[in-house]
Amino acid sequence: MNVRLLAIVALAVGAVCVIVGILAITVVPLAVNKQFCIQGVIAIFNVNFAGSLQDIHLGFDKNGTYNEMTRRWVEPEYAMELRVWVVSVANPEDVVQRGSYPVLVEKGPYIY
Length: 112
Known about the structure:
This is Col_cuticle_N domain-containing protein. Helices cover 52% and strands 13% of the residues.
């Protein structure tokens, strides 16, 4: 009797997991995209729903100045910096031929 009850509970939990998974795959991205479109695009790019999207490209306005998108790209609101460290093996022949431990040399940071 316990095995039958356990099988029914496992089947019910599995069905709930499948339903929640399908909803998570389909509904959640749609809701996130909708929120992004409502908050992000309107606030950042000045959407004109009567016509078309304005300033959704890098370029110039009609008066020759940068458009809003280009200004935000040229002068971002936050500092961007990428630091990269590279690790080089100083003794590759010893590692391959003799099975020695590698001697690692750290190079960097290379900052972009």
